């Protein structure tokens, strides 16, 4: 896991240096996203080869669908103040997680 995190940190620094001067906050967000993808990919590779294969697609499509719905809500509300936009998009995301059954009340209760 340490190697994956170090690779993610190196990716974040490299992409930050490449994108932030031109795209500012959006470049920083893309750098963070790319580093998280690197960490996920390396961690998945490790688990798949050392423990067992995991059906990632069957577990990820629901949260991904909820994220797409949240993105659409955020884009639709770009004219509203940022605080309201964030609150609405967050509420839409949580609702979409429950509607797609990515999260259930039983899972929440078990926390």
Summary?
The chain has helices at residues 2-50, 56-76, 82-99, 105-109.
Please tell me about this protein's structure.
With 111 residues, this protein is mostly helical. The protein is flat and about 40 Å long. It starts with a helix and ends with a helix. The model has no long low-confidence stretch (mean pLDDT 90).
The percentage helix is over 70%
Strand content: under 5%
Q: Strand pairing plus helix content: what structural class?
A: mainly alpha
Main sheet specs: none
Helix count, per DSSP?
4
Average pLDDT across residues? 90
Taking pLDDT < 50 over at least 5 consecutive residues as the criterion, the unreliable ranges are none
Order of helices and strands: HHHH
Secondary structure: number of strands:
0
Radius of gyration: 17 Å
CA-to-CA gap between the ends?
25 Å
Morphology call: flat
Please name the defining characteristics of this protein:
flat; 4 helices; 111 residues
What is this structure's SSE topology?
Blueprint (H helix, E strand, L loop, with lengths): L1 H49 L5 H21 L5 H18 L5 H5 L2
Helix pairs in contact: 2-3
């Amino acid at each position: 896991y340490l190697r994956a995190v170090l690779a993610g940190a190196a990716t974040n620094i490299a992409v930050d240096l490449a994108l932030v001067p031109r795209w500012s906050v959006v470049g920083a967000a893309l750098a963070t996203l790319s580093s998280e993808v690197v960490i996920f990919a390396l961690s998945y590779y490790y688990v798949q080869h050392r423990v067992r294969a995991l059906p990632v697609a069957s577990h990820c499509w629901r949260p991904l669908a909820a994220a797409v719905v949240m993105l659409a809500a955020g884009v639709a509300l770009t004219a509203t103040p940022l605080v309201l936009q964030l609150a609405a998009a967050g509420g839409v995301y949580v609702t979409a997680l429950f509607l797609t059954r990515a999260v259930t009340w039983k899972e929440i209760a078990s926390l």
